[in-house]
Amino acid sequence: MKIIEFCDTTLRDGEQAPGNTMKPKDKLLIAKKLENIGVNVIEAGFPASSKEDFEAIKLISSHLKKATVCSFARCVEKDIDIANESTKGAKNRMLMIFYAISDIHLKNKYNTNRKDAMEKIKNSIRYSKQYFKRIKFGLEDATRADPKYLHQVINLLLNEGVDTIALGDTTGWITPLETFKLVKNVVYQVNGKVKISIHCHNDLGMATANTLSAIMAGVDEVDTTVNGIGERAGNTPFEEIVVSLVVRKDIFKRKINIKLNALMPLSELVYKIINRTPSHEKPIVGVNAFRHESGVHIDGIKKDPSTYEIFNPKKNWTQARIFIWKTFKQEMTC
């Protein structure tokens, strides 16, 4: 049975939202929790964006022992240089470079054309190889790119020897059926030569569904954030993918190496650091996720919890959920 790997981008994409700012010491706490819970790759930040991000990645690099520290960069030599400096102390490290490939971005953001974009991508990968043995290339807005051009860019990435190709649904635009078809075609094209990753946003509320569709279509890795935090409507929630793969293993038939009993403490830590609480109805970690009011439901739960609870919440999940609920009530009365 195939193992699904997790690349957590809570510390990079998750922070890129109003109010989600994290200090370097906070990022280290989260990174340690992520490593302990079994996350394979931790995208620690965008070091060229700020001095604090650089220091956070440097700090994380010096502490992690198992997980791969991934530093983020544009297709800009200075970005790549800074990413190298920020991760020099890491036991395991990787570079994540990205470039948008949809015509919307090429024309309106970069003011460039497809041919020149491919040249820039190629040169950036080659420049990166002087520093990094492992390179993940993120295709921003891949889901809105011309399929023929996407095919050409992937061939370029294969020829340049990247380790992982990340397909970005940057605007949360694609649907689950379209995701399955797109990923299936890409998986067929690469034929096991590189890992394929999926990076979804939640603008239309389909990030979890799209990520699960990508898993069914054969991706090797999924990009997620704790509690689904991130730009605009957020990213694919880590806890939702983990629990979905466990509860519906009959459908997905994938293994994961994630410690389930550490999910809720991790969720609590992230919410506490960014000074937020989950919505009551938030799947897995919301305060109402395992609370019932309807008499019919309560009667069923008393007789057999599986009538209305499709998985059994661990004891420490419940304790952490009660903590969040009490904190929320205290804030409301202040």
UniProtKB/TrEMBL annotation:
This is 2-isopropylmalate synthase. GO terms for biological process: L-leucine biosynthetic process. Residues 4-264 form the Pyruvate carboxyltransferase domain. Pathway: Amino-acid biosynthesis; L-leucine biosynthesis; L-leucine from 3-methyl-2-oxobutanoate: step 1/4. PROSITE patterns: AIPM_HOMOCIT_SYNTH_1, AIPM_HOMOCIT_SYNTH_2, PYR_CT. GO terms for molecular function: 2-isopropylmalate synthase activity. It comes from Candidatus Zambryskibacteria bacterium CG10_big_fil_rev_8_21_14_0_10_42_12. InterPro entries: 2-IPM_HCS-like, AIPM/Hcit_synth_CS, Aldolase_TIM, LeuA/HCS_post-cat, PYR_CT. It is an enzyme of class 2 (transferase). CDD domains: DRE_TIM_IPMS. The lineage of its organism: Bacteria, Candidatus Zambryskiibacteriota. Belongs to the alpha-IPM synthase/homocitrate synthase family. LeuA type 1 subfamily. Its EC number is 2.3.3.13.
